[in-house]
Specification:
Order of helices and strands: HHHHHEEEEEEEEHHHHHH
Distance between the termini: 55 Å
Radius of gyration: 22 Å
Number of helices: 11
Helix content: 25-40%
Strand content: 5-15%
Strand order of the largest sheet: 1-4-5-8
């Protein structure tokens, strides 16, 4: 089935059998997943129908018109945008069946244990260790003949770790190899003994980020994603998907940060000046170009195989957000210097649009850091999109244990 009309008919039949107004939200989402209408480009039995990604818009249009509930994608964005495509590409059939359904429904929130205090922009320098323990005994339901791994280390800037059940984790399994090798990719149960989550308070006053300490955490080998030592290759799929999900999210015209700025401009004519008008027009056009470019990028994607173009989108996203929020604060004058609430909170999702201008201005400063720093992404665009020579790297063939730290 590859026809949009047929998919529309199928969606309408599903809605007739599961009326949104008469079906409990979680039950509706479970039924939608089982009907293959969750992400239609995924295989049958895994929430999809194996059809073109672009046809998802047909499903979403019908569901939105019927007032159907969504799965709160901002709350579970790491699972949807990063964990799911990685598991789909590299996971075993058992892992796909175990993790994808509760992930999409939102029953299980995911976080990402990648960055470390000594391995931020240079992620491959990570030092968290995973040591094979074939004689170890994991919890009864997870005991596997493949044994388990004992993980020790520290991760940082972990969004949503305080609300997460599962984490995608990369750890060093062979320090004798160069830093990009000898890394293995795991799924970590955040409720396991030895996992400690501490809040990191941000410039906004909140703590959506965390640092995570791993002390003797036992992970069954059945929760390893990909081959031993192939973690860097697996992580690249995660990172490329992350940048597409951050910089290329589907939004309507005047969605995102440009929306509140345009609204203030229309409703507060006394704030307008010619100079501000020219700057607003420029940013409005750039925001629209970015939105349309993101739509084109999504249509070009093959499930689980994003390219480096997402890095360019994420670069533009960060710059635009910071310029737009800066102009909004300037437009509001003294009002723009106000900040609604410095209360220490640990939110489960980021809400740029539902907050005041001061929050948007402060929070957008992190856009050029999270999801890959702008400096790293410029290197990726230069080397992998423009084909420019790579920067000299003297440590590529040096064993990780011999690197200066």
């Amino acid at each position: 089935m590859t026809d949009g009309a047929e998919l529309r008919r199928r969606t309408q039949e599903f809605l007739a059998a599961h009326p949104p107004g008469a079906t409990e939200r979680t039950e509706f989402l479970k039924a939608r997943f089982d009907a293959g209408l969750a992400w239609v480009h995924y295989p049958e039995g895994l929430g999809g129908l194996g059809v073109a990604r672009a046809l998802q818009a047909v499903v979403e249009t019908e569901l939105e018109a019927a007032g159907a509930p969504d799965n709160d994608p901002r709350r579970i964005g790491i699972g949807l945008g990063m964990a799911a495509p990685t598991i789909l590409r590299f996971g075993t059939e058992e892992q796909k069946r175990r993790f994808l359904r509760p992930l999409w429904i939102g029953d299980e929130v995911w976080c990402q244990l990648f960055s470390e205090p000594g391995a931020g922009s240079d992620l491959a320098a990570l030092g968290t260790r995973a040591v094979r323990d074939d004689g170890g005994t994991s919890r009864s339901s997870e005991a596997e003949s493949g044994g388990s791994w004992v993980v020790d280390g520290q991760k940082v800037w972990t969004s949503g770790a305080h609300a997460a059940r599962w984490a995608i984790l990369i750890a060093r399994t062979d320090p004798e190899l160069p830093k990009h090798r000898g890394i293995t990719y795991f799924v970590c149960d955040m409720s396991d003994p030895g996992v400690e989550v501490r809040p990191l308070r941000q410039i906004t006053g909140e703590a959506e980020f965390n640092e995570v300490f791993l002390t003797g955490v036992r992970i069954p080998d059945a929760h390893r994603i990909g081959e031993i030592g192939d973690g860097w290759k697996v992580a690249q799929t995660t990172l490329m998907n992350e940048r597409v999900s951050i910089g290329g999210a589907r939004i309507p015209r005047e969605g995102g940060m440009i929306g509140p700025l345009a609204e203030v401009w229309r409703e507060r004519p006394e704030l307008r000046t010619h100079d501000l008008h020219q700057r607003l027009l420029k940013l409005w056009v750039e925001a629209e170009v970015a939105r349309v470019t993101g739509e084109r990028l999504r249509q070009q994607l093959v499930a689980g195989h994003p390219g480096p173009e997402g890095s360019g989108m994420k670069l533009g996203f960060a710059r635009l957000n910071q310029e737009i929020s800066g102009l909004e604060v300037e437009l509001l004058g003294e009002e723009g210097l106000l900040y609604e609430d410095w209360t220490m909170r640990r939110p489960e999702k980021v809400d740029f649009v539902g907050r005041d201008a001061g929050y948007r201005y402060l929070r957008s400063k992190g856009n050029s850091i999270e999801g890959g720093t702008s400096e790293v992404l410029l290197n990726i665009v230069a080397e992998r999109v423009l084909g420019l020579p790579s920067e000299p790297r003297t440590d590529k063939d040096v064993a990780w244990k011999d690197l200066a730290r």
